[in-house]
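re: ur question from the group chat, yeah i did fold both. here u go
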Amino acid sequence: MDDGKEQEKMIQENIRSWAEEYAVENDWVLNSDKTQLNAVIRGLARNKIRHGERYCPCRIRTGDPNIDREIICPCIYHKDEVKNDGNCHCYLFFNNGK
């Protein structure tokens, strides 16, 4: 495996671990659809590599770091989305159904 692929894999593993812990801290769960979950984690990892931050892959970056800070995962919208919709926009975090 080349260094770039290995780096991306390591970042994906770190993001997955972080997301699992963050979900538990908030009494949520991660998406049970592994295909969708993996796609979001892969998008977060690629944004981390390309842009230096875990920008939400489901939102459009403006290029202005002050504005885009709002869409670094977990974005400023995620708690309200999980509360109101049952999941965040990216389908990463879900309420646990309680």
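okk and heres the other one u asked abt
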Amino acid sequence: MIYGRLWLVVKPTVGIPLLLGAVAVGSFAVHTALLTNTSWVKKFLNGSAASAVVQTQSTVASVAPPTLQV
């Protein structure tokens, strides 16, 4: 373990729950920011169907592949 000496300063019974708690708080903060700053996440979580995007093809003249002229 690279940081093996860390546990000589901080007891594992304190450090591990503190580390896991920090990860949980960070994850909660990111998810809260996503919910408050975007509109599509709320719709997705509530089960709203995404609106379909309709694309129309424009008429394109078919082009013959280039031929080699020797």
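fwiw on the second one: The mean pLDDT is 81. The radius of gyration is 28 Å. idk if thats what u expected
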